[in-house]
Every structure is written in C-alpha cells, then in structure tokens.
Amino acid sequence: MSSFSEIDNHQMSDGYGDSVFSKMIKAGHRTYFIDVKTTRSNDYFMAITELRKKILPSGGTATERNKVFIYQEDIEHFAESMEEVLAYMRERADLSPKRKEEE
C-alpha cells in the first residue's frame, strides 16, 4: 500500500481541475492514478498520472511524474481504442500478474 505522503502529493500538487473520482494502481516502483476531474464549466476529463521513484546517483530518491489528459469529447473514442489494444495484448501476451519469485 502507498504511503499517505505519496497519495497526498498526487492530490495536493496536481493543480488540474477538481477530482471527483480516483483509482490508484500500485505496480512495483510505479504508481498510477486514474482520476475523473471537472473543469470550471463542469465538463469532465480523465487524467492518467504515472509516478515513478528513481534512485539518484547520490543515493537519494526523486519522483518522476507523467500525465495524460483525455477530454470529455474524446473519451468514447479513447475507450474503444483502449479495448482494441487490450484485446490485442490479451491474444498475444500473458497479462497475468507475476509472482515475486518469478521476477
């Protein structure tokens, strides 16, 4: 489970719209957030954020943040395309979660 500081850092320092729904996916040294947000005019958009911890040469750590925004008018096309991509991957790759001893 992620620390409160990681979740708080994601929520508080975002600055893009008001979050109305959020899902967090912890995946090793990466954490993904999928947020539904609203604009000032109450339009919805989705923000997908990847947080990745990196170890610096000095031994300290830094967090790299990448974001993608999908706007309300594009969401259906995005969802259809995502389903096609997932279907393709499911046919060709083993998408089952890896066990710790297999890594």
Core attributes:
flat; four-stranded antiparallel sheet; 26% helix; alpha+beta; 103 residues; Nuclear Transport Factor 2, Chain: A
In brief:
The protein has 103 residues and is α+β, with helices and mostly antiparallel strands.
Strand content: 35-45%
Shape: flat
Structural category is alpha+beta
Examine the coordinates and then state which fold CATH places here, giving the name of the CATH topology: Nuclear Transport Factor 2, Chain: A
> Could you give the order of the helices and strands?
HEEEEH
Number of helices: 2
Helicity, in percent?
A: 25-40%
CATH classification class:
Alpha Beta
Domain unit count: 1
Quote the distance from N terminus to C terminus.
Answer: 19 Å
State the total count of DSSP E strands.
4
| Main β-sheet description | 4 strands, antiparallel
Please state the average pLDDT score.
84
Record the strand order, biggest sheet.
1-2-3-4
Rg, Å, rounded:
16 Å
- The CATH architecture can be given as Roll
Low-confidence stretches: none
